[in-house]
Amino acid sequence: MTRSWDTARRARAARLARARAVSPGRWAEPGRATALLEALLEPGDRVCLEGDNQKQADFLARSLAAVDPARVHGLHLVLSVLALPEHVELFEKGIARRVDFSFSGPQSVRLARLAGAGQIEIGAIHTYLELYARYFVDLTPRVALVAAQAADAEGNLYTGPNTEDTPAIVEATAFRDGIVVAQVNERSDRLPRVDIPGGWVDFVVQSPTPSAIEPLFTRDPAQVSEVQVLMAMMVVKGIYAEYGVDRLNHGIGFDTAAIELVLPTYAEELGLRGRICGHWALNPHPTLIPAIESGFVRSVHAFGSELGMEAYVAARPDVFFTGRDGSLRSNRAFSQTAGHYACDLFIGSTLQVDLAGNSSTATRSRIAGFGGAPNMGADARGRRHPSPAWLRAGEEARADPGAIPRGRKLVVQLLETFREHMEPAFVERLDAWDLARSAGMALPPVMVYGDDVTHVVTEEGIANLLLCRTPEERAEAIRGVAGYTPVGRGRSPAAVENLRDRGIVRRPEDLGIDKRRATRDLLAARSVKDLVRWSGGLYDPPKRFRSW
Question: 221-529 falls under which CATH superfamily?
Answer without folding.
Answer: Glutaconate Coenzyme A-transferase (3.40.1080.10)
